[in-house]
Amino acid sequence: MTQRHPEICEVAPRDGFQSIMAPLPTDEKIAIIRDLAATGCTRIEIGSFVSPKAVPQMADMADIVDGVRDLPARLSALVPNQRGAQAALSAGITDMVYVFSISETHNQNNVRQSVAQSLDGLARIVTDLPARTRLRVDLATAFDCPFDGAIGQGTVLDAVRAVTQIAPHAEVAFCDTTGRANPFVVAARFAAAIALPQTQANTWAFHGHDTFGQGVANAMAAWHSGVNVFDTAAAGLGGCPFAPGATGNTATEDLVFAFNEGGLPTGIDIGLLLQTADRIHALPGGITGSHLRHVPRHRAA
Amino acid sequence: MTQRHPEICEVAPRDGFQSIMAPLPTDEKIAIIRDLAATGCTRIEIGSFVSPKAVPQMADMADIVDGVRDLPARLSALVPNQRGAQAALSAGITDMVYVFSISETHNQNNVRQSVAQSLDGLARIVTDLPARTRLRVDLATAFDCPFDGAIGQGTVLDAVRAVTQIAPHAEVAFCDTTGRANPFVVAARFAAAIALPQTQANTWAFHGHDTFGQGVANAMAAWHSGVNVFDTAAAGLGGCPFAPGATGNTATEDLVFAFNEGGLPTGIDIGLLLQTADRIHALPGGITGSHLRHVPRHRAA
């Protein structure tokens, strides 16, 4: 087995900004994305192509893309349906994140579709996808649903089979939407999915929240099960606006600290990252949750 | 290998209370220790036998012991020297925790002794120890020192060799005094210590802080390396009063959540624990840091 390297996918501009109701200035969003790229971060989820009526914060996506497309990082955008995928492609997005929830109730609440409809949508998107476009599929509520409670492993593996049959080369993410997963279930669920014969050409990501204090521990569990890509938000900004009580993306700085200090460098400069996290923390209306940002700076970086 | 079970050693009454400068009412301390035992917690560090001039908060230890000695939990007390050990034995303590720091600078600051003097003190205590008394040795700054920075693995293993030669049946704890350890170094350091031929009759504990957001992840790393005993403080009360910037014991509720939800029950009732954590959080002058206490109660328990 070749040496593995962890890769951070910064989601503050998507999962973080969407948690702030009042639209932020487009220039400030662009400046933050540029700052994030300057930390050495190689992947940034810069927003989502959704109805501006549903999420007014994302109404300026075309301008955002224009303001950051020269950056060397992989810039992805989230889409919940075919219309969003078309808009993303039109804007020049080449890293697409398609999202749906394992939980029927949450999927109806989040993207107004049944799981079967979301799978149909994925199939249509894959058919139309330009060859150069990379696809990630985010499986939301892959452990726990704010409405239905615990999601069983069998249900998740069924979804993985359906998704990987449609998209055998996609990156697949298990999203701990509520932050209620524990390190043991994270380890077991990824190990089971990665062992499926039909997923051998897929790659894996973990999107974790720190709401229950398990954020870094769950990411470590995913890493040891073979996951290389981790979604986190600088300053711990955000949560899921459709999941009551679910705030708190895992702070990028907390997870980068674990990897960098542990001898698995992420390529991200902690000092620059903490400066950007401070800028994000200062955004009006945002809820943040970081550990590293609160220790004396000379001890953290 | 027999099935392992995690055991929580609750340290809020020692590492937590000592972080509060103004003495708390003895009755309230006793009530909290009794509440902690009622959660199902089987081990509680109820305080330290130290100079009341150095730590006025611990001046009422004899009364505390009298107020809790009927409890079914194992009740331990921390001692930094022979005088403290004598006082603990006189009070009827049968679970003794002897502490010194791997870092010379920190040991001088914390217990006013060199490491060699602390090892001599341990040898004298072991000689005098009644047969029924259980011994834990806490190795403070086993990863990082607030004054000297990173502590190397060789230095720690040298200390482990010295300690286990003196106390071949003791429980040995690596203490992340500053919270700056990462999960990879925790895993490696315990694995190396547990593999030493001369430590085969010792058992192991991890005393972690969450200051850098690594608390639960570090405990998980220790668990997977073979550690069964975890020091945590309900509500995350406290820190090390002699380590600048080091606040934040890992919250008991955050770690109990990981184990209980992960199918490794600690025997602790999360609902009762959260009630006690609320009571601890309400203590005047305390600094707490918990995740689980902030999520809607029906989701946590």
Automatic annotation (TrEMBL), chains A, B:
<keyword id="KW-0479">Metal-binding</keyword>
<protein>
    <submittedName>
        <fullName>Hydroxymethylglutaryl-CoA lyase YngG</fullName>
        <ecNumber>4.1.3.4</ecNumber>
    </submittedName>
</protein>
<dbReference type="InterPro" id="IPR043594">
    <property type="entry name" value="HMGL"/>
</dbReference>
<keyword id="KW-0456">Lyase</keyword>
<dbReference type="InterPro" id="IPR000891">
    <property type="entry name" value="PYR_CT"/>
</dbReference>
<dbReference type="InterPro" id="IPR013785">
    <property type="entry name" value="Aldolase_TIM"/>
</dbReference>
<comment type="similarity">
    <text>Belongs to the HMG-CoA lyase family.</text>
</comment>
<dbReference type="Pfam" id="PF00682">
    <property type="entry name" value="HMGL-like"/>
</dbReference>
<dbReference type="GO" id="GO:0046872">
    <property type="term" value="F:metal ion binding"/>
</dbReference>
<dbReference type="GO" id="GO:0004419">
    <property type="term" value="F:hydroxymethylglutaryl-CoA lyase activity"/>
</dbReference>
<dbReference type="GO" id="GO:0006552">
    <property type="term" value="P:L-leucine catabolic process"/>
</dbReference>
<dbReference type="GO" id="GO:0046951">
    <property type="term" value="P:ketone body biosynthetic process"/>
</dbReference>
<feature type="domain" description="Pyruvate carboxyltransferase">
    <location>
        <begin position="6"/>
        <end position="274"/>
    </location>
</feature>
